Amino acid sequence: MARVAFYAPMKSPDSPKPSGDREMARNLITAIRAQNNIVELASDLRIYDKKGERPLQDQLRDKAMVEATRLITELPSDTELWVTYHNYYKAPDLLGPVVCRARGIPYVQLESTRATSRLSGPWAGFAQSAHDACDAAQIIFYHTANDLITLKREKFGTQILVELPPFLPVAELPSPSARDGPMLTVGMMRPGDKLASYTILAETLEHLTGDWVLDIAGDGPARPKVEALMAQFGSRVRFLGQLDRDTLQEHYRQASMFVWPGVNEAYGMVYLEAQASGVPVVAQDRPGVRDVLMPSDHPNVSSGTKGLAARIQLLLDDPDLRRTEGDRARAYIAQRHLIPSATDRFWTAVRPLLEKEE
User: Where is this region: Disordered (predicted)?
Assistant: First the structure.
């Protein structure tokens, strides 16, 4: 049994605001805590500069200095490991390296990225701090092949890079979908990349023929724009609003397929949820997204909305293909993306660090 200090500078896992980032942090805590380990939130101090504002960065550094001083004194004496989730140029870890150096605690990171292009410009100072924090980590766990590119190029000394695929915080798969209900989309409704995915989705639906229905789960400030995009389809597109986990699972249990283009998604937990229920996924073959999708005929971005529509139409017209693809997806998730696999990968890499400290 080990005692672990966990920290997420961008958003505390205790944040009341739902997001994929918060969800993944919670999942990681669950995975690390398995096998009777103790995981405690080291701090809820948020270090995040969205716009690149030097005065804000200076204020956050001052707060971090005070917090690090407190933690050096107050962190439980039997803490054996510090884990930081999502260190990057807008949200560098200003606590972990300082505390671990002072206390002699091994330091590892999860889902960190290096952005050398940001070492100049409005985030230059924070980007350097994120880079330095990466250098301080004995192990960096990466979630996607895209993240590995720069982590490998900038790898510091004897640092170890370990793949930790995104995962669901469960040990067993949910019951499989009947795959005979409406299509399903799950996505927050906000400007930027999410709205871009909804725009692609609306244009894709224009190419479909026959009888189809799409349920959309999600809400947010861009909902009026999403509703306007979908207005042309009338009752074929139904807005479910934001759903709790149990209600969403009921929709996975009926869905014929899951459709989401995935513009600039880091990976997307909803893809894992859909596949775990045996729901075939239609998404564009994009970096990050492809790391959580069962290998299949995912449309290239260059094929545009017609490529997405062709894949959807094929699945709409062939129930046997939906079942085959869904069953393959479930097997893929069971083998690679559930919590037992994540726990084993994490502790297999980290245990040697703790043994060195004994």
Answer: 1-21
